[in-house]
Automatic annotation (TrEMBL):
Homodimer. Pfam families: tRNA_m1G_MT. The lineage of its organism: Bacteria, Bacillati, Actinomycetota, Actinomycetes, Micrococcales. Its main location: cytoplasm. Signal peptide: none annotated. Keywords: Cytoplasm, Methyltransferase, S-adenosyl-L-methionine, Transferase, tRNA processing. The gene is trmD. GO terms for cellular component: cytosol. GO terms for biological process: tRNA N1-guanine methylation. It catalyses: guanosine(37) in tRNA + S-adenosyl-L-methionine = N(1)-methylguanosine(37) in tRNA + S-adenosyl-L-homocysteine + H(+). This is tRNA (guanine-N(1)-)-methyltransferase. Residues 1-228 form the tRNA methyltransferase TRMD/TRM10-type domain. It is found in: Cytoplasm. It comes from Calidifontibacter indicus.
């Protein structure tokens, strides 16, 4: 998979060298390139922002550096890329969207800062890109970079070969509509706190039933919205 990230803070993306994502890059599973948006400016101050028409607080990202950066990346594309613009005003990024994006050969992330990117850039980009505005959740970050770290990790771990144990992708929170069951490791007695007896029983049927019950209880307590949706899909449960 080819990934391009456009940002005025390319150093923010340094964690993508680490851990499983870094390994996937070194193994050639991910071709991930980070670009400094300021490289596409032409003035002495490498200006990327300006004041908003109509007034109001803050600054707006100028269209020109974006159009040149998007053109440069599109010129290197072998297939029509998806342009992902992270922002609190976007559609909610979910596991289903991560799975959908993991099927695409080329993703480009445009990190906005300040009050956002000039709206005309979205329309301009639609010539060469499938454009998606995506939000992590209902809170505000200072820019798209941290959201890109989250989205790239969620997407890349779904690619074949990125996670050693593909089984660990199956019984996960958000893959089947329930949160995960609680997990324990040795010792069985830790400072007087016991691992539930059923997990020491060796009875795989009872363990599976207990884990499923834990998933239902946890989901009902922590995510009533998910629990209601699950009950609607599984009326027998
Ligand atoms: Cl994707 N970007 C920004 N700037 N803020 C956010 C967000 C994204 N998701 C939630 N808040």
């Amino acid at each position: 998979m080819r990934l391009d990230v456009l940002s005025i803070f390319p150093e923010y993306l340094a964690p993508l060298d680490l851990s499983l994502i870094g390994k996937a890059r070194r193994d050639g599973l991910l071709d991930l390139r980070v670009h400094d948006l300021r490289e596409f400016t032409h003035d002495r101050h490498r200006t990327v922002d300006d004041t908003p028409y109509g007034g109001g607080a803050g600054m707006v990202m100028k269209p020109q550096p974006w159009s040149e950066a998007l053109d440069a990346v599109a010129a290197q594309a072998d297939s029509r890329p998806v342009l992902i613009v992270p922002g609190p005003g976007g559609e909610r990024f979910t596991q289903a969207i991560a799975r959908e994006l993991a099927q695409r050969p080329h993703l480009v992330f445009a990190c906005g800062r300040y009050e956002g990117i000039d709206e005309r850039v979205y329309d301009y980009a639609a010539r060469d890109y499938d454009v998606r505005v995506l939000s992590l959740g209902d809170y505000v970050l200072n820019g798209g970079e941290v959201a890109v770290l989250a989205m790239v990790e969620a997407i890349a771990r779904l690619l074949p070969g990125v996670i050693g144990n593909a089984e660990s992708l199956v019984e996960e929170s958000h893959e089947d509509g329930l949160l995960e069951y609680p997990v324990y490791t040795k010792p069985a007695d830790w400072n007087g706190r016991q691992v539930p007896d059923v997990l020491l029983s060796g009875d795989h049927g009872r363990i599976a039933t207990w884990r499923h019950q834990q998933r239902l209880e946890r989901t009902a307590a922590r995510r009533p919205d998910m629990y209601e949706a699950y009950r609607a899909e599984h009326p027998e449960a």
